[in-house]
Amino acid sequence: MENMNKEIEFPNQELEGLAHGLAERFIQRRDLYPKQLDDGRYICIRKPLLDWHLVKHLRGEITLGAYVLDEHSQASYVAFDADDDTAFGKLTGIARGLGADGVPAYLEQSRRGGHLWLFFSQPVSGRDARAFGKGLVQIYELEGVELFPKQSTLKDGPGSLIRLPFGIHRRSGERYGFVTPEGQPLAGSLLEQIKLISAPLTVPLAAFAAYRKFGTQVHKTPDLTPAEAPTGSLSQRIKDSVSVVDFVSRYVQLSPNGRGLCPFHDDNHHSFAVNAEGNYWHCFAGCGGGSIIDFWMKKQGCDFKTAVRELAGMLLK
Q1: Dihedral sign, CA of 183, 188, 190, 191?
Q2: Which of 115, 216, 237, 267 fits a disulfide with 261 by CB distance 3.0 to 4.6 angstroms?
């Protein structure tokens, strides 16, 4: 891998093309922009962002940030920021796991730790972007990292920002590149890295919908008719008697982060997950999700009342 810190010496026309591609992928708005100071802080420049600003960013003359939400509170990506090597190791594990599931994610090194980027094929609302990110946080039990965007909607000001890739960090004087989960450069040269990241693979729509749902799902007991009220009370006792993690573990081999092969379809990608905090399960391939009662109904092919009766005999002795 070439020295990332050396001055970029591409012809102006080629450099302008690289800057344009970078802007198309990362810049959400052009009416203002964040600029990094020598101490690492950012200030908001309330003037239009021009192409020559981006060229100067790539040359290392200035360093820009990127506001994650546009004027309509939409996002084209989410990013996780890790401030130390331990947290960056967690992001590396996520990138590896997502890759196995066919979800592309990109690791970028930084002064402390680094970033994990996931790109969308089209802009989504800030609310949906954060729900998608929260789904990843819950599935992989992430701690010690920040999720961008930090806001679902803009209120006062342009919202959260993150350092625009491939610029010189003003505090460290270093230019940081992208790496594979194995720690190797994503591409052999800076030029190749810029081109690759400017046109990245995007999150499949089905995966986006599944993680977004997992990030917002709050399981509720099915509505009961008056005749079912006694059974409904029994159903809550069943749910309180054992956690979803403990119950499902009897039938699905779960990893430490709660992932496993779904028992309801031919699964080779560990599409099944349990949420210990929310006390529910979910299949990202579309097999459903819910409480231990929902799991038993799916497993046994029975209705709600039958599942409650059978589980009561198993768990409430």
Answers
A1: negative
A2: 267
Domain count, the chain: 2
Q: Are residues 211 and 239 in the same domain?
A: no
* Under 8 Å between Cβ of 215 and 139: no
Structural domain harbouring 136: 12-215
Q: How far is CA 76 from CA 16, 73, 97, 124, in A?
A: 22, 10, 22, 6
Sign of CA dihedral 263, 264, 268, 269: negative
Examine the domain organization and report whether 163 and 270 are in the same domain.
no
**What phi and psi values does residue 288 have, to the nearest 5 degrees?**
105, -160
Is residue 159 located within the same domain as residue 259?
no
CATH code of the domain in which 161 resides: 3.90.920
3-state secondary structure of 220: coil
Angle value at C-alpha 10, between 9 and 14, nearest 5 degrees: 160
pTM beyond 0.85: no
pLDDT of residue 275: 85
Helix (H) or strand (E) holding 238: helix 229-241
Residue 223 within a domain: no
Closest of 248, 277, 276 to residue 263, by C-alpha: 248
CA distances (Å), 242 to each of 9, 117, 280, 296, in order?
63, 37, 12, 13
Could you tell me if residue 229 is inside a domain?
Answer: no
* CA separation for the pair 108, 289 (Å, rounded): 33
The two structure tokens encoding residue 108: 């970028």
Look up residue 83 and give its DSSP letter: -
Task: Answer yes or no: do 43 and 121 share one domain.
Answer: yes
Distance between CA 219 and CA 262 in Å, rounded?
19
The rounded distance, in Å, linking the Cα atoms of 295 and 281 is 8
Q: 38-89, pLDDT tens digit by residue?
A: 999 999 999 999 999 999 999 999 999 999 999 999 999 999 999 999 999 9
CATH number for 273: 3.90.580.10
Same-domain pairing of 241 and 141: no
